[in-house]
Amino acid sequence: MKMCRSGLTRVLVFALFAWSSSFENCNAGESYRGWNSAIFNVLDFGARGDGYADDTQAFVAAWAAACKVEASMMVVPSGFVFLVGPLTFSGPHCAANIQFQLNGILIAPTSRKPWGSGLLQWIQFKKLKGITVYGKGIIDGQGSVWWGGKATNANMPSTVPTALRFYGSQHVTVSGITFKNSAQSHLKFDNCVSVQVFDINISSPGDSPNTDGIHLQNSEDVVIYRANIASGDDCISIQTGCSNVYIHNVNCGPGHGISIGALGEDRTKACVSNITVQNVILQNTTTGVRIKTWQGGSGSVQGILFSNIQVSEVKIPIMIDQFYSPNAKSKLLKKASAVTVSGISYVNIQGSYTVKPVHFACSDNPPCTDVSLANIWLTPLEDNYNLQGPFCSQVYGTLRTRTTPPMDCLLTSKPPRINHNSCWP
């Protein structure tokens, strides 16, 4: 059964890679693609693009026109800066295969009024079939007005928006765009199927709060590659409901690394499966590749592969934390259940750490099982008294090769029978 599942995972990964390769020529610049039946330039709908006038309604009008025509193109031209308030480009009655060509600069409002009592996102594409956002443009969330202490953001709503969100959409492509300084997450996919993200840049300060680079939730068949991400939180965050995700050729740092979770908060059920992360460089991040769950949750994380990971100046390169909580006291509280973590593979992870090479803190019920490591070579950046060795608690697994540093903390005996609320029969 394990071999069948592993084989299926490999087939899915290669299929996703082949599918992603078919989009290589989609990242055009200022040129318009010949197969478009209609082009709708926001300047023709009254946008001024001077960075001061509110161009929101011009974007609304351009979208209303593009929405009616299959394979249409909405154009945001280069050489202009467009100040736009919260926008939702919505289906489900729009025609299919709309392109949003962004070569100009979009900036978010920095005053409270456009946000009302607070919104979850600044720009949203909702319930669309075949939506492509591409170009050489910039989405600038101007998030500094939301960050910092009360003196800094006292005038802004307490609900902090994501810069760009896709919800309930199929066949989504994002390429070529630069994201800057989102108030919160930069790019989010929620309840989406068949997602392509490539050739993008994301940048926010390392101390900016909750500024995830890419956030995935309840989405499947996702490919992310050739991305440069610097943020104040996870470079890529994979949440519940995600499956068949392939991430490769990503540069991450600063930030919190690439994370699955946190899962199972408030005793919820979380399901994540078939995730591959490979050919990734992490530099100056708090963690490298991480799985994090709350105590008291249910569900499972399974079929995860982390391979060909290069780390540099990373505090803890490899981590499973089943006691995740921002509250230090809550981390000490053990609950009667937890999300099941099994079938996790770490292959060819090399580089330098500054605190600890490996941290596996698994729950008592159930423990982590079927965890394997091969070709792990992690060395301290420099010798100091704060360095710690590998840590393992309640993790059953196998060392496929010798590791540096040596790991003798895995439980190699047969794990106990797990009777837990899993996601799959």
From TrEMBL:
**Keyword presence, Hydrolase:** yes
Give UniProt keywords alphabetically.
Answer: Cell wall, Cell wall biogenesis/degradation, Glycosidase, Hydrolase, Secreted, Signal
Q: Which residues form a coiled coil?
A: none
Molecular function terms, GO-annotated: polygalacturonase activity
GO annotation, biological process: carbohydrate metabolic process; cell wall organization
The record's annotation in InterPro entries points to: Glyco_hydro_28, PbH1, Pectin_lyas_fold, Pectin_lyase_fold/virulence
Which residues are the signal sequence here?
Answer: 1-28
Q: Where in the cell is it found?
A: Secreted, Cell wall
Q: Which Pfam families match?
A: Glyco_hydro_28
Per the annotation, which location comes first and is thus the protein's main one? secreted
Give the stretches traversing the membrane: none
Identify the SMART domains for this entry. PbH1
What domain of life? Eukaryota
Q: Which PANTHER family match?
A: PTHR31375
Task: State the family named in the UniProt similarity comment for this chain.
Answer: Belongs to the glycosyl hydrolase 28 family.
UniProt protein name: Polygalacturonase
